[in-house]
């Protein structure tokens, strides 16, 4: 009996983090996409906050300064990666898992465009003995591609988690790319 209770509690504890992400329609209706086989996907980072910082610029300035103090030029290299990781890592992960799970292909000429604006990024950390998972929050706006003023639906994605299953995600970019992968996968399933 005690073993069953312990196993049950263990399962609950293990599944709690898996259900932290939330997707919610805040306006319109996604049923319009029901018969669509393709969608255009775009990304924005307007007014994004990072961690405890009010603006992304404040976060990047602080981290750049810290890394440059440790090693000349390291902060500047990090700052370039902070931006280039979006197009090279985060966005492709999102698109791959979104299209796999929604069964829609990405097409710049599709009838509808999904715009994913990242509003918050928690980069997290992993120093071996202690860690905090990364996560992102975003707003999704689905519009007609040829008439951007025609908004079909708006959704929010809250606390999309990013971490490596094996716990070897020491690279910030890796953790954040996993948060985008999870957001793409979950949003794709939600829309399907």
List the topology elements.
Layout: H1 2-15, E1 22-28, E2 38-44, E3 49-50, H2 56-70, H3 74-102, E4 105-106, E5 112-122, E6 125-126, E7 131-132, E8 134-144, E9 151-162, H4 172-191
Parallel strand pairs: 2-4, 2-5, 3-5
Antiparallel strand pairs: 1-9, 5-8, 6-7, 8-9
Helix pairs in contact: 2-3, 3-4
Description:
By secondary structure, this protein is an alpha/beta fold. It has a single domain (22-191), classed as Rossmann fold (3-Layer(aba) Sandwich). Helix content is 41%, strand content 29%. It has helices spanning 2-15, 56-70, 74-102, 172-191; strands spanning 22-28, 38-44, 49-50, 105-106, 112-122, 125-126, 131-132, 134-144, 151-162. Strand 6 and strand 7 (131-132) form a beta hairpin. Helix 2 (56-70) crosses helix 3 (74-102) and helix 3 runs parallel beside helix 4 (172-191). The protein is elongated.
Based on helices, strands and strand pairing, what is the structural class? alpha/beta
Distance between the termini: 41 Å
Helix content, binned percent: 40-55%
| Overall radius of gyration | 19 Å
The CATH C-level class name: Alpha Beta
Number of strands: 9
Q: What name does CATH use for the topology?
A: Rossmann fold
What can be said about this structure in brief?
The protein has helices spanning 2-15, 56-70, 74-102, 172-191; strands spanning 22-28, 38-44, 49-50, 105-106, 112-122, 125-126, 131-132, 134-144, 151-162. It has 192 residues and is an alpha/beta fold. It has one domain (22-191): Rossmann fold (3-Layer(aba) Sandwich).
Looking at this protein, list some descriptive labels.
seven-stranded mixed β-sheet; 4 helices; 192 residues; two-stranded antiparallel ribbon; Rossmann fold; 9 strands; elongated; alpha/beta
């Amino acid at each position: 009996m005690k073993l069953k209770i312990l196993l049950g509690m263990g399962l609950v504890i293990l599944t709690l983090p898996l259900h932290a992400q939330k997707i919610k329609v805040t306006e319109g209706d996604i049923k319009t996409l029901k018969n669509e086989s393709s969608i255009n996907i775009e990304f924005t980072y307007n007014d994004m906050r990072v961690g405890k910082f009010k603006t992304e610029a404040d976060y990047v300035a602080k981290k750049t300064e810290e890394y440059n103090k440790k090693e000349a030029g390291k902060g500047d290299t990090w700052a370039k990666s902070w931006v280039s990781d979006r197009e090279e890592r985060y966005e492709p992960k999102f698109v791959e898992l979104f299209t796999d799970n929604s069964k829609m292909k990405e097409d710049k000429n599709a009838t509808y465009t999904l715009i994913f604006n990242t509003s918050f990024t928690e980069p997290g950390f992993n120093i071996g003995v202690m860690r905090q998972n990364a996560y992102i929050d975003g707003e999704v706006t689905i519009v007609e591609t040829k008439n951007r003023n025609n908004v079909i639906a708006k959704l929010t994605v809250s606390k999309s988690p990013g971490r490596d299953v094996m716990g070897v995600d020491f690279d910030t970019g890796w953790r954040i790319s996993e948060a985008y992968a999870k957001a793409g996968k979950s949003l794709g399933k939600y829309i399907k």
